[in-house]
């Protein structure tokens, strides 16, 4: 029995020593591995309009400012919700805040605040017509983008382009270095959206509330680029 125990203990020690050696030994040197990146780009018409409306109020006390902002926002919401339609015109409130106003002596001499409403969707005519009817808020920003449906439609095309370019580049490099083929080691795929040219900017001054009354605000969308990047490494063989 004692001999058996000693043999088992010796075997455990040898196994532990082997595991320790394996952990401390340096990883095998990589040979004939190439890192590369490929990109697929698809240009598509922007189909999403995001229109921000806002108002600012000032008064001697915070309660008055809050009441004025609430009244303006409630009236705008009532008008916007009459025309809301899921996906075509979605309505949501934006930032709503109150801030103290300081005098030259560093003391609070009044309050100011700002409230925002956001109209977003694919029906440009419905959105701009609704904005034109809102009397209590003014347009502060206009931006365009891609709806989830439009992005998903072209993202697959851009991804296919990137993958095919990656494979062609890998085969070309393998051949150039004198190898007949390659195998994929690791790969990463990511996508993003870019808008060529200047991005939409906040208007320098908000339009006077009611200045677009009963008339649609003129807007025109541009194009966006959906870009998919495929990066990784291949083993030439």
TrEMBL record:
Keyword Phosphoprotein attached: no
Domain of life, per lineage: Bacteria
Gene3D superfamilies per the UniProt record, alphabetical: Protein of unknown function (DUF541), domain 1, Protein of unknown function (DUF541), domain 2
Pfam families cross-referenced by the UniProt entry: SIMPL (PF04402)
Annotated signal peptide: 1-22
Keywords: Signal
Protein name: SIMPL domain-containing protein
């Amino acid at each position: 029995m004692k001999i058996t125990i000693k043999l088992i203990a010796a075997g455990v020690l040898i196994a532990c020593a082997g595991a320790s050696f394996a952990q401390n030994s340096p990883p095998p040197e990589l040979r004939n591995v190439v890192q590369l990146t490929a990109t697929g780009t698809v240009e598509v018409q922007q189909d999403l309009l995001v229109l921000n409306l806002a108002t600012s109020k000032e008064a001697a006390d915070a309660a008055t400012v809050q009441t004025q902002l609430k009244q303006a926002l409630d009236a705008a919401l009532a008008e916007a919700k009459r025309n809301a339609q899921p996906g075509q015109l979605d309505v949501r409130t934006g930032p709503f805040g109150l801030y103290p106003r300081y005098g030259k002596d560093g003391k609070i001499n009044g309050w100011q605040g700002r409230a925002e409403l956001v109209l977003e969707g694919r029906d440009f005519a419905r959105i701009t017509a609704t904005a034109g009817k809102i009397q209590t808020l003014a347009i502060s920003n206009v931006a365009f983008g891609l709806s989830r449906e439009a992005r998903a439609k072209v993202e697959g095309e851009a991804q296919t382009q990137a993958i095919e370019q990656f494979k062609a580049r890998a085969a070309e490099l393998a051949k150039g270095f004198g190898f007949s083929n390659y195998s994929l080691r690791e790969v990463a795929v990511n996508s993003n959206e870019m808008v060529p040219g200047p991005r939409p900017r906040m208007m320098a001054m908000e339009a006077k509330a009611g200045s677009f009354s009963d008339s649609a605000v003129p807007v025109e969308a541009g194009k966006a680029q959906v870009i998919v990047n495929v990066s990784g490494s291949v083993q030439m063989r």
